[in-house]
Amino acid sequence: MPRFLSRLAVTGTAAVLAAGLITPTAVEAAARPTGPARTLKWAALGDSYTAGVIEATGGLTAPRDGCARTTGSYPEIVRRGLGALVDLHNVSCSGATSADVDANKQSPTGRPLPPFGVDPAAPYPPVPAQIDAVDPDEDVITVGVGGNDLGFGEILGDCIALGATHLGLGSPCKDTYDAQLAGRFDRLRTGYGAMLTALRQKAPSARIITVGYPHLVPEDATRCRFGDPLQFATFTTGDLAWARTSILEPLNQAIEQIASARQDTFVDLYADSAEHSVCDADHWLDGVLTSVIPLKYALVHPNADGQSFAATRVGAAVRGT
Q1: What is d(CA 290, CA 18) in angstroms, rounded to the nearest whole number?
Q2: What are 40's strand-pairing partners?
Q3: Domain holding 127: CATH number?
Q4: What is the rounded distance in angstroms from the CA atom of residue 165 to the CA atom of residue 273?
């Protein structure tokens, strides 16, 4: 949820913010069609959870347009697994909302250097709405957005800043944002539904696969260490529990409901990543930082293991097209 980047830079919270996995070989085996081979046309759309963004998911792919797509993101893992069986056009972009998928040009910020500096190649020119990459004869479209529609990056940044000023006590972020959530979810549902309608109109025969978000916060928020930049830094325990039950879980439920109402596919990444949250020892998402020495940011994004997990689920759905 990349708008977290600019938010953290402004608030200056960088210092306090923060089983066996499926390999690409296994992804290839899971995704390999068993029937007659033909090339699938696939458009991968989405935000930073699709694009990869952070250093923990590899180097940047071409073109370097500021969207920060990485070699270890799940579309690229699945592409390598399927090889010549798929023609992938990956236009996912850090910071994208549903409106950036179906309507708006987006001004990407790139991948800043730690600690949250400015990408040396910035500023980047605006990129087209992602729907422009979808051909009318597309076979499959995957789309993973929604968090930025809610302003989740802004909320995360404020929760960390408020937690610091309240010395880890109470739920100051819930007190600030809880009353706003109903309106934010109404806008999400409207925008997400309009996006799926636009994608269906652009590619009437495509299979549309919506992708949810993984388990960021553990079921027991007390497992997170207050002040640890490798986890959620100064996010209070009360606010972490609130974020899980009032934002993350309803977000996935809303995406699934909207997709199901249109008979589109939903890929659930939440349930089976429950023991692999930011605060778990075997974590598939990194916290505010991936490492302190050397300093590498993560800003609460899937790491290489999290992207590999997503690749198994999305790859299986693409295979079924």
Answers
A1: 8
A2: 86
A3: 3.40.50.1110
A4: 31
Q: What is the dihedral of CA 290, 295, 297, 301, to 10 degrees?
A: -10
| Rounded Cα gap, residues 9 and 19, in angstroms | 35
DSSP 247-276: IIHHHHHHHHHHHHHTT-EEE--SGGGTT-
Taking only the tens of pLDDT, the chain with its 321 residues reads: 544 444 444 343 333 333 333 344 455 444 444 555 679 999 999 999 999 999 999 999 999 999 999 999 999 999 999 999 999 999 999 999 999 999 999 999 999 877 778 898 999 999 999 999 999 999 999 999 999 999 999 999 999 999 999 999 999 999 999 999 999 999 999 999 999 999 999 999 999 999 999 999 999 999 999 999 999 999 999 999 999 999 999 999 999 999 999 999 999 999 999 999 999 999 999 999 999 999 999 999 999 999 999 999 999 999 998
Identify which of 313, 317, 316, 311 has the alpha carbon closest to the alpha carbon of residue 78: 311
Decide if 124 contacts 65 (C-beta within 8 A): yes
**What's the total number of domains in the chain?**
1
* Residue partners of 183: CB distance under 8 A and separation at least 6: none
Q: What is the CA radius of gyration of the chain?
A: 18
Rounded Cα distance, 234 and 161, in Å: 7
Q: Residue 251 is part of which domain span? A: 3-319
DSSP 318: H
Residue 284 corresponds to which tokens in the numbers above? 């598939």
What is the CB neighbour count within 10 angstroms for residue 219?
12
Token pair for residue 295? 């300093």
